[in-house]
């Protein structure tokens, strides 16, 4: 019975996470909104000067940086109601289990989860991009709010979420 429960939980988790593993671009990196001064090398986003003001706080500059997450100032709504959100993250360690960047879009009294991206936790800066078709009613260009979370699934048996970083940001949908 216990084995069946674990297998069922694993199947449900796999079914829930697999569609979330969307990242922009074939190499998994979104290029449109990288921090100024950054470049892609060896599949990692690097910003040796940390010129982007989002990365100048103590989380990243004291030599003992922690996990961090940021949301870009705008998102897009396509004609087919596909919403795309993006941002930047950095995480240190995924040895306890996979890490994901999830995002929720809030506009008016409506709130919808907009995909998820598998994170690479190597201490480097990376971009994330989440997309989802959101209809009935569709989101419209204008002011909105994004709630993003850097979350790790860990534990034996049924994995449990551990929240590494969160960010709430006002955005403009275009």
Summary, kept brief:
This protein has helices at residues 2-17, 58-61; strands at residues 39-41, 44-46, 68-71, 74-77, 82-90, 99-107, 110-118, 126-133, 142-154, 160-173. The chain contains two helices and ten strands; from the N terminus they run αββαββββββββ.
Radius of gyration: 17 Å
- Summarize model confidence as the mean pLDDT: 75
Describe the main β-sheet briefly.
8 strands, mixed
- For the secondary structure, the number of strands is 10
The rough form would be described as globular
Beta-strand residue fraction: 35-45%
What portion of residues is helical? Answer: 10-25%
- Count of helical segments? 2
- Given helix and strand content, the structural type is mainly beta
Task: Encode the helix/strand succession as letters.
Answer: HEEHEEEEEEEE
How would you characterize this protein structure?
This protein has 174 residues and is mostly beta strands. It has 2 helices and 10 strands; from the N terminus they run H-E-E-H-E-E-E-E-E-E-E-E. Strands 3, 4, 5, 6, 7, 8, 9 and 10 form an 8-stranded mixed beta sheet that branches. Strands 1-2 form a two-stranded antiparallel ribbon. The longest helix is centred in the N-terminal third of the chain and has 16 residues.
